[in-house]
Write a structure and sequence with these properties.
CATH superfamily of the largest domain: P-loop containing nucleotide triphosphate hydrolases
Order of helices and strands: EEHEHEHEHEHEEEHEHEHEHHEEHE
Distance between the termini: 38 Å
Oligomer: single chain
CATH class of the largest domain: Alpha Beta
Strand content: 15-25%
CATH architecture of the largest domain: 3-Layer(aba) Sandwich
Bound molecules: guanosine-5'-diphosphate
Structural class: alpha/beta
Strand order of the largest sheet: 7-8-9-6-10-11-12
Length: about 400
């Protein structure tokens, strides 16, 4: 992770486990007293959310610096939360440092542990303790059906979209408690198929601040994406995909989830008969990694095409589970490779002997070659394109691995 003081905005949720207990580790930005006011406010805000959500708070201090006014201030706030706090004194790099832990305990925040994140000293013991103290979570019954996370930047129309879906006739709706605390899951049944909608806008945080809203949205987005089969990424039609939309799209694909691009507020776009095709081209040329992603043009306001999301999500869900037989795979791709073999590198002829699909959700393919290390990314892209051409996999990221075979 980038060592940027202040806000770490990327990847601040880690799903992990220790001693067979699984939990989320939330990494807040850290409180840097020298950062500017806006930064400090943001960090305080994210820390507040993390504290609200947490079952346990790990309060990291610098062992060498000890208690400064800032730490004392934070300690005061933490005492008020009534949550379990574990003080971790980091940078205790030498074994004898651990004796000084008494000083740290004096602050009266409960348990204190000395660790050295650099050499790992004390970390395993600390984690044993943390895992043993975490409450046993009674897992809510996993809702049945194809789960669709509705994600996107603030104000793209997520709540309107979900409400419009739920307002449809022919839909059996039952609300279920969310598996996370910050989204509302709703189970719907449509034409005999069960779906779970994970609505990341459902519990709206009352803030008008744009940065705060976006930060809060991104935390929810990551968690909802982790839980879903397919993510419906909403963007605003008049603006087109902006940088942050593309970043969310990449997160979804990297997580191996199905992706549907939902262009909302289509009612605001002036249209001719060509507009849909032009718009698709515009999106896919701007970001080639979206070329295999189905695009749906909707208006949550008028309800136009909103109903299509469920059958389309089902299609992507099925594609993500699709397994192609080895014979068919080798037959089809074998002739493509024969026609366009990987270019020789340094007079070495590169051969691909055999292909297998080794996994689904997301689909994973292994290509066995005499020189896997010499195969270029552009050729891997060629192979991916051929797989898609023969077998589909619309909306689904594919994993492609190369392995050595003599
Ligand atoms: P969220 O923050 O993503 O949940 O967005 P909301 O559902 O709260 O919508 C944000 C704003 O966009 C609201 O004023 C909605 O009325 C408006 N909005 C949502 N969908 C549409 C749409 O399809 N067309 C138009 N014109 N406005 C929409």
């Amino acid at each position: 992770m980038a060592e940027e003081p202040g806000v770490t905005r990327d990847r601040n949720y880690y799903q992990t486990s220790w001693n067979r207990k699984s939990f989320y580790l939330v990494d807040t930005g850290g409180l840097d007293p020298t950062s500017n006011e806006q930064m400090t406010r943001m960090v305080k805000f994210q820390t507040d959310i993390a504290i609200q959500e947490a079952d346990m708070i790990l309060f990291l201090v610098d062992f060498k610096v000890g208690w400064q006014s800032l730490e004392l201030e934070i300690a005061k706030q933490l005492r008020k939360t009534q949550k379990k706090v574990v003080v971790i004194a980091n940078k205790a790099d030498r074994a004898e440092d651990t004796d000084r832990i008494q000083e740290i305990r004096r602050l009266g925040l409960g348990e204190a542990w000395a660790v050295s994140a650099i050499n790992g000293l004390g970390v395993a013991e600390l984690m044993d303790y943390v895992a043993s103290e975490l409450p046993e979570k009674v897992e809510a019954d996993a809702p049945e059906g194809i789960s669709i996370a509705v994600v996107g930047r603030p104000n793209v129309g997520k709540s309107s979209f979900v409400n419009t879906i739920l307002g449809q006739e022919k839909l059996i709706v039952s609300e279920i408690p969310g598996t996370t605390r910050d989204s509302i899951d709703t189970q719907v049944e449509f034409e005999g198929e069960k779906f779970v909608l994970i609505d990341t806008a459902g519990l709206r945080h009352k803030t008008k601040d744009k940065d705060e809203l976006e930060y809060y949205t991104s935390l929810r987005t990551l968690r909802a994406v982790k839980e879903c089969d397919v993510a419906a990424l909403l963007i605003e039609a008049p603006q087109g995909p902006v940088k942050q939309d593309l970043r969310i799209a990449q997160e979804i694909l990297q997580a191996g989830k199905g992706l549907l691009l939902v262009v909302n507020k289509w009612d605001l776009v002036e249209k001719t008969s060509e507009t849909v095709d032009e718009y698709k081209k515009f999106v896919q040329q701007g970001s080639s990694f979206l070329s295999f992603v189905p695009i749906l043009f909707v208006s949550a306001k008028t309800g136009q095409r909103v109903a299509k999301i469920l059958p389309l999500a089902k299609k992507v869900y099925e594609e993500r589970q699709r397994r192609v037989g080895t014979a068919e795979l080798n037959d089809k791709l074998g002739s493509d490779i024969e026609r366009h073999p990987p270019p020789a590198v340094k007079a070495k002829y590169i051969k691909i002997y055999y292909i297998a699909q080794v996994d689904t959700e997301p689909p994973e393919f292994v290509f066995f070659s005499n020189y896997p290390e010499l195969i270029k990314d552009s050729y891997i892209q060629f192979l991916e394109n051929r797989i898609r051409e023969h077998f589909g996999y619309d909306g689904v990221p594919l994993k492609i691995k190369l392995k050595k075979r003599k």
